Amino acid sequence: MKLVECVPNFSEGRDKNIIKQITDAIESVDEVTLLDVDPGQETNRTVVTFVGAPKGVEEAAFQAVKKASEVIDMRNHKGAHPRMGATDVCPFVPVSEVTMNDCIEISKKVGKRVGEELQIPVYLYENSASTPERKNLAYVRQGEYEGLPEKLKDPKFKPDFGPAKFNPKAGALITGAREFLIAYNINLNTRDVTKAKDLALIIREKGRRKRDKNYQPVRDKDGKIIQIPGLFKNVKGIGWYIPEYGQAQISINFTNYKISPPHI
């Protein structure tokens, strides 16, 4: 049986009615099964997981993005998690009897349709990326929603689909094909968010900026800021404080468990 997984992240984690409208749009499509809905209060973000036949998943993803653009207004959005649009990311994952290339094609079809029909700027990332830099979600999402008006004027950040024009209500969509992502959160026995941020910088592949004794960024001879790499490849991390837990937390994403599995 051909199966594709889709894990869209929506910029709403507090209003259950809005979340339900989006998941209803997904479940309205045949050959698709909704597996999980995981809202976060502090992040104001909901991660949805559904699976199904390639055509069904393709249609359900579009309908979810469309509904999110109707019921979420990014002009009012605040949350701890980086984000760029009402549907922030929409990745496709091969599960059985489909290839990564199949999922790349699905992401491109969805991206093209979103750009043309909804007039939302769309960026491809991970295995669908149009440039090596765009494989990295953090590169594509830099500046977040607030930085989009200026970012869209830069030819370097021309969208892969849709207009290079700011959509104030919906923001922008990032979509692509990737391996299974493992999200792994660690609650620390402290309220000190600086400790969580420091540990995240040590763990994540991107690492941290090198700084001098005055805590200023150190630059190379070409003026570029020097990065100190983190410990693990294909690992992203961020530290924040979660009021509902009363604890600082490290949120870790293993973007390729075949290279860096959680047990290493």
Automatic annotation (TrEMBL):
Keyword list, A-Z: Cytoplasm, Folate-binding, Histidine metabolism, Transferase
Chief location of this protein within or outside the cell: cytoplasm
Broad EC category: transferase
GO cellular component: cytoplasm
Source superkingdom: Bacteria
All residue ranges annotated as the Formiminotransferase N-terminal subdomain domain in the record: 2-179
UniProt-listed Enzyme Commission number(s): 2.1.2.5
Single GO BP term: L-histidine catabolic process to glutamate and formamide
NCBIfam families hit by this protein: FtcD
Protein name, as recorded: glutamate formimidoyltransferase
Phylogenetic placement of the source organism: Bacteria, Bacteria division TA06
